[in-house]
Specification:
This protein is of the alpha/beta class. It contains 5 helices and 10 strands, in the order ββααβαββαβαββββ.
Length: 194
């Protein structure tokens, strides 16, 4: 069984963006040391246009071969004219409103998101499924998430978009590792306690 990993950036107080979802306040922390870590450990999580711009498009995938993202995350790429933001992965966008995909390499999941993700996890393969966000689909998929990789930036926002938009429930995870960086960023990895 493949893992579904919610790989997400957040503030110290657990917000993945401002109330509209803008996470640009976190970009300043992607310095040389931290970017080196991302490129070495999670190269497939860097969108294809960024990989090409930084001449790292030839880096092989290390952990994931599939991405699931929400409509709001996908819209950020569409605003830039990019219809296939993760061309190096199989791409799925959860949306009840998008209708037809603007790109043949991007499949829209309009119904039964948890069921579709369970089917992706049940496939044979050495690589997992990358949940890119946002809060709404993370909330819908909480029961399916096997691993959390949380990049915590040294800022407090006070309010904003939470990591999970879901009703109250307690879901336990076990801390597997913590990596610290000179700029104050922490990367914590948790596995689901089953």
């Amino acid at each position: 069984m493949r893992k579904l990993t919610y790989y997400i950036a957040c503030s110290i107080d657990g917000f993945i963006g401002d109330p509209q979802g803008d996470a640009s306040a976190m970009f300043a922390f992607v310095d040389e040391e931290f970017f080196g870590f991302l490129a070495a450990e999670y190269p497939e999580t860097i969108p294809t246009p960024g990989r090409r711009q930084m001449n790292i498009d030839d880096l092989p995938n290390k952990r994931f071969d599939t991405i699931v993202q929400g409509r709001a995350s996908y819209d950020e790429a569409l605003k830039e004219g990019v219809t296939s933001p993760y061309a190096h992965l199989r791409q799925y966008v959860a949306s009840r409103t998008l209708g037809e995909s603007p790109d043949p390499d991007v499949e829209i999941i309009a119904d039964d998101l948890p069921g579709r993700v369970r089917a992706l996890k049940a496939e044979d393969g050495a690589y997992g499924v990358y949940l890119c966000g946002g809060a709404e689909i993370a909330g819908q998929l909480l029961d399916e998430i096997d691993e959390l990789i949380i990049k915590t930036y040294p800022i407090v926002q006070g309010s904003g978009m939470p990591m999970f938009a879901a009703g109250f429930s307690i879901t336990q995870f076990t801390l597997e590792s913590v990596r610290t960086f000179g700029n104050g960023v922490l990367v914590r990895t948790y596995s689901r306690k089953r």
